[in-house]
Amino acid sequence: MTSTIKPASDRRRHERFPLLFGLASGPVATLRSKGGAVFPVINWSYGGLQIAVVGNGDSEFAASGGKETGHPVITGILHLALASELTQAIQFNVISTTANTISCAFVHDTPDALLFLRPWMECLRRGTAMTELAPDVIKPELASAGWQVWRGDGPLTLSIQAVKAAFIDWCLVFQVGEGYGEVGATGGKIFSRKSVDNDGRASSRMQASGANDSDLLNMAVMHCIGAGSAVPPALCIAIIDQLRKDPLL
User: pTM for this one?
Assistant: First the structure.
């Protein structure tokens, strides 16, 4: 008997998260069919995803489209081009098609897809819940230096210094297990570190490594994609582009 892992609620299973476009390195998520066609992912949930049709699309997908039941299960490769690259084979049914999109429902007979999706879906969910803090709530020294701060669940905090320069300084703090991760940039140079306890950003016990932590950078990318509904998308895109071209990864 195969086991199936279910998300916490049916609402969360079908909650769709849009992905940002306009990134310098192309889509952050793509789906590759067995025939080799590659489709940018428009949005996704635990239950499925919607992809954009490029060119003539894929005959295998088109033949399986429609709202009737009994379509064959299709195998594809979900590819995430984050700060490092991740891939996962998934199975799905095509449930509807238009001239420009294909909507798919995942087959969750095994937990593989859910286990792969869960950390990235949670980052997106937390990012979408961010709200900007009023200037009088921010520390005076940060506000006077032109910093803007957004906060969300997790806890999750994104601080950006809005300056007219070649680089923007920013810092993202988010929960990692029982502790915290911190990813940011100063003068165009990316840094990452983890807390060795649960005191968060203000702790002197944040520990940096010689090389950037790819897992932390990947999580930062997904948090920023989710934040694109609350933070100006141009700022999120600038941060994501910077993370995806980090020379250490």
Answer: 0.83
